[in-house]
Amino acid sequence: MYEKILVPLDGSKRAERILPHVEKLAHDNNAIVYFLTVVSAPRVFGFDDLQYAHFEKEFETYLEESEKYVKGLRGEFKAKGIEARHRAVTGPVVKEILDAAERENVDLVAICSHGRGGISRLFYGSIASGILNRVDRPLLVIRARKDN
What we know:
Blueprint: E1 4-8, H1 19-29, E2 32-39, H2 49-79, E3 84-90, H3 93-104, E4 108-113, H4 118-124, H5 127-134, E5 139-143
Parallel strand pairs: 1-2, 1-4, 2-3, 4-5
Helix pairs in contact: 3-5
């Protein structure tokens, strides 16, 4: 049923709660798993050249660490007999996730919602909500809270 599964992750333990579900789906369907992490650069204003150079180096380091993170997950899944790929990209998170789903022609996007609601969701926004409202293919959302 599902041949390609996109799994966007932000590096948090909560987001990783989707992994057992993805592992089972991948085994049951002999699917390829695509791990994705998106690094969004904050807008910086008022930096002089030296400050900007320092910021740019920190951002590059963070992107490299993000790449290692999804590469490590790919290795873990491969060790379990699941074909997996990985990618770290920069840009607006929801857009990059949707672009990756289209680019890889995945059958399913699997994410974990952090379970925010009310004022918190309004203030912080919601990646899950943004994907839910714009995705054009099946979406698996697992709600992960501290207590589950």
